[in-house]
Design goal:
Blueprint: E1 8-17, E2 21-27, H1 29-32, E3 40-43, E4 46-54, E5 57-63, H2 64-69, E6 80-84, E7 104-113, E8 118-123, E9 137-140, E10 143-150, E11 154-159, H3 161-166, E12 177-182, H4 184-197, H5 204-216
Antiparallel strand pairs: 1-2, 1-6, 2-5, 3-4, 3-6, 4-5, 7-8, 7-12, 8-11, 9-10, 9-12, 10-11
Length: 221
């Protein structure tokens, strides 16, 4: 589990095509200082398993499903990437609960620069629109962000100088793809409510109690 707080702006050192998969070698001295075989590291929001480490770099195998679902397939040597190690049990949850399981990709469609921040517009696949709400959380290329505005086909985010300077979102331009992971709690609530947890004719209050019970495991009355 991750938090969406990027620890290091890393770089792709090499990409090896293995037919139905790829092997990436990524440079990240900070995230590799205590990494070992089998550990997880999020790369642009994608949870990858460390195969090996050496000299501030780590290697990871990326399967066809991951290449299809994410923007990792577009990476080439020299590409910058956001890197984050998993949250330690008992650590601070600085962003929000992030699984590192990408739901889909969007495209940056516009950037509006302010005096101290930027408003960035990102396209949104229609199947993910119902999980994105104004002032809710979303993960963009592994960065935990608050949604400013949400529409059926796009959303906007506001980037502070720290985010612009320490993540790939500061160098991405219009037309660039980004990985998206929606709030996992929204997906679980939808699944449980869709399983018939709400009786026909239920009042709004009963629906709310059912949603709360779906998350906490309590029965709604």
């Amino acid at each position: 589990m991750f938090t969406g707080i990027v620890e290091e702006l890393g770089e792709v050192a090499a990409v090896e095509d293995m037919g139905d998969s790829s092997r990436f070698r990524l440079r990240g001295p900070l995230v590799t200082e205590d990494a070992k075989h089998g550990d997880s590291i999020a790369v642009n929001g994608v949870c990858l398993t460390v195969v090996g480490t050496a000299d501030g770099e780590f290697t990871a195998d990326v399967m066809a499903e991951t290449l299809k679902r994410s923007s990792l397939g577009a990476l080439v040597p020299g590409s910058r990437v956001n890197l984050e190690r998993p949250m330690a049990l008992g650590g601070r949850l600085g962003g929000h609960l992030v699984q590192g399981h990408v739901d889909g990709t969007g495209v940056i469609t516009g950037r509006e620069a302010g005096e101290h921040w930027e408003i960035v517009t990102v396209s949104l696949p229609p199947r993910l629109a119902r999980y994105v709400v104004e002032k809710g959380s979303i993960t963009v290329d592994g960065v935990s962000l608050t949604v400013v505005d949400a529409a059926d086909d796009h959303f906007t985010i506001s980037l502070i100088p720290t985010t612009l300077g320490l993540t790939t979102l500061g160098i991405k331009k219009a037309g660039d793809p980004v990985n998206l992971e929606v709030d996992v709690l929204a997906k679980y609530v939808e699944r449980l409510l869709g399983a018939g947890a709400v009786p026909a004719g239920a009042t709004p209050g009963a629906v709310a109690r059912t949603a709360a019970g779906a998350v906490t495991g309590e029965a709604a009355v």
